[in-house]
Amino acid sequence: MSKLKKYDFSNSFTSINTYVDQNADSFIPAVVGRMRTFDYVTPVLDIKTSKVIPMVTTSIDFVNANSCTSFVNGATAGFVGTTLTVAYIKNEESICLPELELYYPKWFSAGSDQETLPLESAFMEQKLTQISKKLDVYFWQGGAGITGLIATATASSCIVLATQSFSTSTAVSNGVILTFDNMVDQLDSNILSEDDLTLFCGTEVFDKYVRSVRNLNLYHYNAEEIKNGVVNLMGKSNVRLVATVGLDGTNKAFMSKSAWILLGTDVMPDEEPIKGEYSFYYDKYLMRYKVKLGSALAQPTYAIVAKA
């Protein structure tokens, strides 16, 4: 341990097992919590395979009460169940110890067949970030048995606006500004005033929108307003524009109420979500990342997808 302190390493290939055991239950929340999408949708936790999520809709009609009348049913409640199914996915990785020897030659006093090799905490931090980005992509675009939200919405008869432009706008009548305006114009009158309307797009599309507004001098953005890739859509104060890596490179955008966008995962799995151990047989350190992930849309007829 003196050598670990000397090199300022917080973990070693031996102690990583302890690190994993102590943090197994919090690994998935830590990873999923890094997903940009997770902050702007409705998370449904602890799903083993699938779960029916109840949704209640109510309409209210008042009646004239100046005269004494019998009990009148002035409201209609509807109950709809949305099935959220998760897929079990994993990633396996091996770390070749001779490669590490190039970086830490002084540590290999007995050759490469040993467990006690240095591992910086930055290694795990980097893995958490990369895994969360991949899960964001899977949530939106699908993969490895997961049906992405874009495909789910399209197959469920959402509004699809095709041949839209996501280029930097040179006027309000073209490019990404017009595309986002077209999406807002398609909003149903029943949800126009909802306070959790969110428009998701890729990072590069978000940048083109902000740059368009800046270049046209339509609005003076404060740097704090666009911090972390989130800003209110110009001309629609109750619509948030959110940049997510899950839609990077797709030239697609999606808009709906956050409450209706469901992200399912298992934050307390029966199995350990991450496992690492040194293998003398392979002379490698082996790691496995596991997670359950799924998406669903409660009210697809109110959702809007735009694509180039």
State the secondary-structure class.
alpha+beta
Major sheet characteristics? 6 strands, mixed
What is the rounded Rg? 25 Å
- With helices defined by DSSP (H or I, 4 residues minimum), what is the helix count? 7
Number of structural domains: 2
Q: Largest sheet, order of strands side by side? A: 7-15-11-8-10-9
Total strands: the figure is 15
The first-to-last residue Cα distance is 57 Å
Spell out the helices and strands N to C: HEHEEEEHEHHEHEHEEEEEEE
- In percent, how much strand structure appears in the residues? 25-35%
Mean pLDDT: 79
At a glance:
This protein has 308 residues and is an alpha+beta fold. It has 7 helices and 15 strands.
Can you describe what's shown?
The chain is of the alpha+beta class and 308 residues long. It folds into two domains: 9-56 and 93-147 and 264-297, no CATH class; 149-261 and 299-307, hypothetical protein PF0899 domain (hypothetical protein PF0899 fold), CATH 3.30.2320. The protein is 27% helix and 29% strand. It has seven helices and 15 strands. The chain has helices at residues 2-7, 15-32, 97-103, 121-141, 149-155, 175-185, 203-215, and strands at 11-12, 42-44, 50-60, 75-85, 87-96, 118-119, 159-161, 197-201, 230-232, 239-243, 252-257, 261-265, 274-279, 284-297, 304-307. It has a six-stranded mixed beta sheet, with helices on both faces. The longest helix is centred in the middle third of the chain and has 21 residues, at 121-141. The protein starts with a helix and ends with a strand. Residues 1-25 have low confidence and may be disordered.
